[in-house]
Amino acid sequence: MINSLKFILSTQLKRSGINKTISGFTLIELLVAMVMAILIITPLMAFMINILDGDRKEQAKATSEQEIQAALDYINRDLQQAVYIYDADGVTRNADTTITNSGIKNQIPPLKSATSCSDSTICKPILVFWKRQLIADSVGINASTETSAANTDDGFAYSLVAYYLITNTDGANSTWSKEARIGRFELRGPVNATNANTTGSATDSGFNPPSLNKNGTLLKDKMDQWQAASANYSNQVVTLVDYISTTAPSSTAPCSSPNLVGSQTSGFFACVDANDVLAQVYIRGNALARVQNNNLAYANNTKTYFPSSSIRVQGRGFLFSK
Fold it and tell me: Can you tell me where the transmembrane regions are (predicted)?
């Protein structure tokens, strides 16, 4: 009888699972597994982080290359209309009554105040030129009151254009990168035509036409004596492209004074032949500034992230000198 009860009880315990043996990992086994997991996962994570960081830098480099090329294309189209380009003599000397010592440095921003370019320590003129540009529907066929496209013709106006290197290495301006950017300034004059309408007669504050009536035998002497019509400008310096390098590899300058405008150790400078209205423009970007906040200076081991390009442009505008 007792044996029968033991058999029944044993059978019920087996069915209910109470009598099953409970097994698991020991503490040593868990520690060994964790160590092995760390040894395997840590290198994989570091590898993935390096891949992602490299991909991010390559994307930044590609973006910089595209933006530099777009900026050079824009400057190229602008310069093709040039009638005169200032070399270093014109850009670095102030207005002077002496023909051989005069320049326009104190006639343009930043010495003449303009929005976004009022500090001469961070905003420096590099490429300054006069151009003759087409102004569509700016001249009435029969009268200056005509403004509709059916009764108007196109006219031409002179503009003074300046490109600047604006540095921001201390990060004082949080809108832009901690390197430099290129800004553009323009003063447009009126269309010189009898029936110039409101579109053609519009002019920017401070504009004066090219100084062809000044003393001097050379065009350079005359143009270096240009002076603005007012103390300050209402026009602003508009950013063309950001993430421009402030450092560069040490190399031989492509030209010398007065043809070299700016510093070859920066990311934006030009070689200008004022007599031939010819300019070679150099731009170097800094892709590292897009992905990090320090160690932004040019170095041989990071030179691939400092893409550079240049253009050579002959001004083809026409200057009415008579």
Answer: 21-49
